[in-house]
From TrEMBL:
Listed transmembrane segments: 12-30, 50-73, 80-103, 142-160
Protein name per Swiss-Prot or TrEMBL: CASP-like protein
Homology family: Belongs to the Casparian strip membrane proteins (CASP) family.
Entry superkingdom: Eukaryota
Membrane topology: Multi-pass membrane protein
Primary residence: membrane
The protein's assembly and partners: Homodimer and heterodimers.
Entries under InterPro entries matching the protein: CASP_dom, CASPL
Localization per Swiss-Prot or TrEMBL: Cell membrane
A single cellular component GO annotation: plasma membrane
The entry's keywords: Cell membrane, Membrane, Transmembrane, Transmembrane helix
Species the sequence originates in: Oryza meyeriana var. granulata
Pfam families on file: CASP_dom
């Protein structure tokens, strides 16, 4: 196996990983909901626009990444089309992960929680939210972490693809 073939194999491996990680991140976030004990209400990813954006962005990135994978395997289009799909995928994944990491610590301030009264809300702002909504917070954090790994995998796939291309020209 030549260096070009090895770099291409690494790129393909990471492209496949991006598709799987993007889908996994979307599924984990889409299942993020929790009913609170003692009639405190309920919370769902659909109550937060940043989380809805996250699900849409990760699904679109999975589609773009799958298209880039297909096109890079079969070399059906010019190189710039795959590069454009890679850039879109990377931008969506980094922005989605960043949005969730930025918003997740501020969840209590948004208070998109049905039935929550002001006293409960005050306690949630001081760190009690994730003690009460532990499953929800865990899913949000896990999905953002998976998304960050997917974004890093796109970067590795792009770097190894370009390395294989440049080595093949020498």
């Amino acid at each position: 196996m030549t260096e070009v073939d090895a770099a291409r194999a690494v790129s393909l491996f990471f492209r496949i990983a991006v598709v799987g990680l993007s889908v996994a991140a979307a599924v984990v976030m889409a299942t993020a909901n929790q009913v609170f004990p003692f009639n405190y209400g309920a919370v769902s990813y659909t109550k937060y626009s940043a989380f809805v954006y996250f699900v849409v962005a990760t699904v679109v990135s999975a589609v773009c990444s799958a298209a880039a994978l297909y096109l890079s395997v079969f070399k059906a289009t010019p190189h710039w089309v795959v590069t454009l799909l890679d850039v879109v995928t990377m931008g969506l994944l980094f922005s989605a992960a960043g949005a969730v990491f930025a918003v997740r610590s501020m969840l209590p301030l948004y208070l998109g929680v049905e039935g929550a009264d002001v006293d409960v809300a005050g306690r949630w702002v001081n760190g009690g939210f994730c003690q009460v909504a532990g499953a929800f917070c865990w899913r949000v954090t896990t999905s953002a972490t998976i998304c960050a790994f997917a974004a890093a995998a796109v970067a590795v796939a792009v770097l190894t693809k370009d390395d294989a291309r440049h080595r093949g020209k020498h």
